[in-house]
Amino acid sequence: MKILTIDTSSNCSSVALSDGTKLLGECILGEDRCNSGRLMGSISDLLAAAKLTPAALDAFAVSLGPGSFTGVRVGIATAKGLSLATGKPAIGFSSLAMLAMNLPHASLPVAPLFDARKSEVYAGLYRCDGLPTALMPDAVLPPADFLASIGSPAIFLGEGSVRYRALIDSTLGEKAVFAPWSADLPRASAGALIALEKGLRGEFTPLALLNPAYLRASEAEIAKRKRDAEKAA
Amino acid sequence: MKILTIDTSSNCSSVALSDGTKLLGECILGEDRCNSGRLMGSISDLLAAAKLTPAALDAFAVSLGPGSFTGVRVGIATAKGLSLATGKPAIGFSSLAMLAMNLPHASLPVAPLFDARKSEVYAGLYRCDGLPTALMPDAVLPPADFLASIGSPAIFLGEGSVRYRALIDSTLGEKAVFAPWSADLPRASAGALIALEKGLRGEFTPLALLNPAYLRASEAEIAKRKRDAEKAA
Questions:
Q1: Above 0.90 for ipTM, yes or no?
Q2: A31 in contact with B, Cβ within 8 Å
Q3: Is A146's pLDDT higher than 90?
Q4: DSSP letter string over A21-60?
């Protein structure tokens, strides 16, 4: 099963091309390099290197978030476009599960963190043997609340863990382990691992249901709710 | 410290661009995509995305092998060229240590394996907490000999572990764990992690001493030795 996997859920972008359990290529662009031009360029480059076209693929996989609202939307829109144009199915997965799988066979539970701004993080807790197993649901919350909910030692990774490292250290002390910096960026290849399992089980998502997992309302929605509440009052 | 890290030690090629402990980008091309054209293309793309030129970098890092003789030579030649042209220093590291670091904080020792052809593997055994610690020297040997030398459970990864999976399974049974397939390709970003540590300690390698770690003689050398021995006899 040939899968193109896309992640733009943070301020990075990453694309992986795989054929069954073989990774054909991967391109990751770090902070502030994420825009649709670069994303399409990476996809074209990977397909060209593998001498493949979108029509030759079997599925398009994409991270549904949580993460940057705009980023997630760009990724999903791209996957939907490719899926619609080729008639091949789409597969969605959690961006936090993908990030956790940067530490396969980790000795401790893995806590992937994205910076969610507004003094919050998108956070998950996973066991990463083989495939990621969620130990709690992905959530958006203040980092202190997340840390309070973690009883046992964990390995932290992702931009959120970089930003809140001092807080994590002071709260958890020796219970907090940090992944090496080379593992902090989300990798579409880890998403491809999850996507292949879903694809083999036939767990495709109809395009109309391939929606972002924002976990919280957007600024516009919050503003609208406030306006509506004021009108009703 | 801005570092461009190159790995072409297997039949894959991979390039990473980093600034201190920040990964700016990475491009990995799988099996049979490794050629100097693609390598230079990946380097150019990463530099362009980061709006950097070779002259703006502080060091060039490269995996010295063991691995494909031609591949290792291409990688080292490229790093030497960039280093010579810019006057910036070079850093070398083991390709097996780099591959092992695809499993940072692994719960068991990590055994990276490249297929060395001639029924042998390039093999190492590392503990991967933070940075890789070699538990035995990198070696080239028949896979059965390597497996006989491993007493305790280990996590296997790399193309060599894919090729010899049945043998590993039958020899070690439950003591053998296999990394998920998404971790089987060497990643220059893991090399960048090792390179940054060396760079910060000033462990640069003069270009004249930046040599492949082949671990065994080349076909041409073996043939020459045989000819010389026959002449001497």
A1: yes
A2: yes
A3: yes
A4: TEEEEEEEE-TT---HHHHHHHHHHHHHHTT--GGG-SEE
What is the per-residue pLDDT for B33? 52
Answer yes or no: do A107 and B106 touch at CB < 8 A. Answer: yes
Clarify whether residues B155 and B143 are in a common domain. yes
Taking the CA of residue B153 and the nearest CA in chain A, the distance in Å comes to 13
**B127 and B166 inside one domain:** yes
Question: Residue written as tokens 């973690």?
Answer: A150
Work out the minimum CA distance from A182 to partner chain B, whole angstroms.
Answer: 6
Residue B186 Ramachandran class (φ > 0 left, ψ -120 to 50 alpha, else beta): beta
- A131 Cα to chain B: minimum distance (Å): 8
Kindly determine whether residue B31 and residue A24, on different chains, have CB atoms separated by under 8 Å: yes
Whether chain A has a CB inside 8 Å of the CB on B104: the answer is yes
CB-based contact (8 Å) between A184 and chain B? yes
Residues of A in contact with B21 (CB under 8 A): 181
The tokens of A40 are what?
């399409």
B136 lies in the same domain as B123: yes
Buried b (16+ CB within 10 A) or exposed e, A51-86: ebebeebebbbbbbbbbbbebbebbbebbbebbeeb
One-letter amino acid at A99 equals L
Domain count of chain A?
Answer: 2
Q: Is B135 on the interface with A (CB under 8 A)?
A: no
Q: What is the pTM of this model?
A: 0.94
Residues B148, B168, single domain; the answer is yes
In angstroms, the separation between the Cα of residue B178 and the nearest Cα of chain A is: 8
Task: Tell me, yes or no, whether B108 and B179 share the same domain.
Answer: yes
The parent domain of residue B36 ranges over: 2-95+186-229
- What CATH number is attached to the domain comprising B163? 3.30.420.40
* A193 lies within 8 A of chain B by CB: yes
For B104, which of A131, A179, A187 is closest by C-beta distance? A179
More confidently predicted of A37 and B229: B229
The counts of H helices and E strands in chain A are: 8, 10
Q: Dihedral of the CA atoms B181, B184, B190, B194 (nearest 10)?
A: 140
Task: Please tell me if residue B33 touches chain A, with a CB cutoff of 8 Å.
Answer: yes
> How many residues comprise chain B?
233
Query: Which pLDDT belongs to residue B36?
Result: 61
